[in-house]
Amino acid sequence: MANIVAKKKFSKKTTAALTAAFLIIGGGAYAFWSTTGAGTGASTNAQSNGTVVLTATFAPGLTPGASTAVTYTAANPGTSSLRVGTISHVVSTSAPLCLPADFTIANVLSDTTVPAGATAFALAGTGTLTFTDTAINQDACKGATITLTLSSN
What we know:
By secondary structure, the chain is mainly β. Helices cover 10% and strands 33% of the residues. It has one helix and eight strands.
């Protein structure tokens, strides 16, 4: 008995479709046209780059006629470096009859860049807090807490 091998002939359409399927699925080939392109991209920057938290440190025990050095640190919780220019002060006291006007401190030029994420970063510039010795009784300031409220530009 003779082996009979059946040969199936595919039409041209079927052959083209199978070839295309092979190229797309198995061969990874594709056709394209070249072209040119143009476009733009835009985004708005932040309205603010954050703020620093300033801290002043000075020795306790100030008495009339004496002065003490004031040092400064800054914390920058933001994601970009921030610059501290001039540090300004407002003096307040914990005792109602202890006059803030009896304490003086000049603005301090720091001009320091505080890195992003910094905590307790030492600032350049040192202030001098003076407790003025006046002609009136200053007993109301005994034991009072002196607070410096800081701002910078």
